[in-house]
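User: Here's a structure from my thesis project, written as structure tokens. My advisor, Dr. K., wants to see whether a designed sequence matches the one we expressed. Can you design one independently, without my sequence as a hint?
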């Protein structure tokens, strides 16, 4: 567990009473975590404690979208009523995803997605919070056991896993309003929160839920069949060619855009399509993206919304610009980086993170030769690769006739942004899909079809 150190304390008089504010630093996340303490708690068993994660919109602005600010106030009032206790204030905004991403999630929620779906669509976990700092603060304050003010069973489980003795749970009952009703209902149904919500003045929770998209459940009919089809084609192709079967899979708008602008991550498809993407990943040996996607989106490229193993990750990175702290290193047992040279100052740092550098001669475009790279990956036992982007990578696989299959999500919206495929030097250089099948994932259309290389060889 990372070490956390107390730096200073100061007296803080409040409307609820007089507290002392303890300031802590650490070398792990380098954030300033805090403890708001009333009374003498050292050595006191069953101390009343709230472990509160920062929420600028709720704590400072009094936003009605969540119950965070109300929980903060309630906790201080309960501590004051008891005469002693601790409020630990952890600097992990937006359930750990940060303020900017939280605001992006708010915009998605205004479109009808719930708080869990919004986080997942942005490439985050439903809840990314950690509680090692809270455990360190409780140890520093010499508190042997706590009564925890929370509605979240996961918080109790995390703290107990860190060695904290939680003797009791003290519930915090939120006020319910038209802005937070659907949010609170989602916390109960999808995050196990222990809440027994009272009826509202204007009706039940359903009357307060925002306008929703249609059901987001991924239909099994059609999707499972197409994934099985890809697996069969991939096995036959590798047996004949000894090189990976390539599936192009990405989301685009009706006008063919995959992002609003280059380098700007854009949520295009819905939650159902996102789950389907994870199922597709699980059916491939590896997932491949260009370094531009890594720098813009910092994707995990893992399988967390479906059953199955995480694929290997492959990054096309001519000049080794992949950050050693990229999130794809967190969950992948194998990360390949296809590059033109390993003499970059970043090479050692990437190797220390476990990346395998695949140095490949450059082609006419000055980038690593994809044909050679695929042959080498095949020799390493990589039988199938799902190519997710970005635009230059997708275009490169198409014009070089290296892709075998396409599984494309088309979302019912217009972006007027960056196209997946740009102009081709000749009129016939881009392929046409065959054996096309269409399925639906909520509001999105899925297009499945074989490309010429897959038809010829498999």
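Assistant: Designed independently from the structure alone:
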């Amino acid at each position: 567990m990372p070490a956390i150190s107390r730096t200073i304390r100061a007296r803080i008089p409040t409307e609820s009473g007089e507290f002392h504010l303890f300031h802590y630093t650490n070398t792990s996340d380098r954030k300033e975590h805090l403890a708001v303490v009333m009374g003498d708690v050292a050595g006191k068993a069953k101390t009343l404690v709230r472990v509160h994660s920062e929420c600028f919109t709720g704590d400072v602005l009094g936003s009605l979208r969540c119950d965070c600010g109300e929980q903060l106030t309630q906790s201080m009032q309960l501590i004051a009523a008891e005469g002693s206790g601790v409020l630990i204030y952890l600097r992990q905004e937006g359930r750990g995803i940060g303020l900017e991403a939280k605001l992006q999630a708010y915009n998605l929620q205004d479109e009808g997605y719930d708080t869990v779906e919004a986080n997942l669509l942005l490439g985050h976990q439903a809840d990314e919070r950690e509680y090692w700092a809270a455990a360190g603060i409780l140890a520093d304050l010499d508190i042997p056991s706590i009564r925890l003010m929370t509605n979240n069973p996961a918080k109790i489980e995390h703290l107990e896993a860190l060695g904290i003795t939680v003797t009791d749970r003290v519930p915090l009952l939120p006020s319910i309003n038209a802005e937070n009703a659907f949010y609170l209902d989602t916390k109960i149904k999808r995050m196990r929160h222990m809440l027994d919500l009272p009826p509202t003045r204007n009706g039940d929770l359903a009357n307060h839920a925002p306008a929703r998209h249609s059901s987001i459940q991924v239909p099994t009919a059609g999707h499972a069949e197409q994934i099985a089809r890809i697996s069969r084609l991939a096995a036959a192709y590798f047996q004949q060619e000894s090189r990976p079967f390539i599936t192009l899979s990405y989301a685009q708008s009706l006008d063919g855009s995959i992002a609003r602008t280059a380098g700007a991550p854009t949520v295009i498809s819905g939650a159902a399509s996102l789950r389907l993407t994870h199922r597709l990943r699980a059916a491939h040996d590896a997932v491949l993206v260009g370094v531009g996607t890594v720098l813009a989106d910092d994707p995990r490229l893992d399988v967390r919304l479906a059953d199955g193993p995480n694929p290997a990750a492959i990054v096309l990175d001519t000049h080794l610009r992949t950050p050693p702290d990229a999130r794809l290193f967190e969950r992948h047992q194998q990360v390949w980086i296809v590059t033109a040279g390993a003499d970059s100052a970043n090479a050692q740092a990437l190797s220390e993170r476990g990346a395998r550098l695949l140095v490949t001669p450059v082609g006419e475009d000055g980038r690593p030769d994809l044909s050679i790279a695929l042959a080498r990956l095949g020799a390493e036992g990589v039988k199938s690769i799902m190519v997710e982007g970005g635009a230059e990578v997708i275009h490169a696989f198409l014009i070089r006739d290296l892709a075998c299959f396409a599984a494309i999500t088309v979302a019912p919206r217009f972006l007027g942004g960056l196209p997946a495929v740009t102009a081709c030097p000749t009129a016939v250089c881009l392929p046409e899909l065959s054996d096309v099948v269409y399925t639906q994932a909520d509001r999105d259309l899925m297009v499945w079809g074989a490309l010429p290389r897959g038809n010829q060889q498999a």
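When you compare it with your expressed construct, this may help: Residues 173 and 310 are 39 Å apart (CA to CA).
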